Amino acid sequence: MTIIRHSDCPATNAAMTEAGYEIIAVETYRWPDGVTETEVLWSRDEPPITEDELPF
Q1: Using CB atoms within 10 A of its CB, is residue 44 exposed (0-12), middle (13-18) or buried (19+)?
Q2: pTM flag (> 0.85)
Q3: Domain coordinates in residue numbering, the chain
Q4: Does the N terminus or the C terminus of the chain have fewer Cβ atoms within 10 A?
């Protein structure tokens, strides 16, 4: 299984969905300074991929 982590971004999310990935988790971090940051974990049941195969 290939797992990719990246910041939440609608354009990138669309590219990942079109490439056959699905969301397996959404992680939200709330920092002491009040900033909230979200990361999405994507997966695809295929052999590991290389960086040049990423859709973004």
Answers
A1: middle
A2: no
A3: 2-53
A4: N
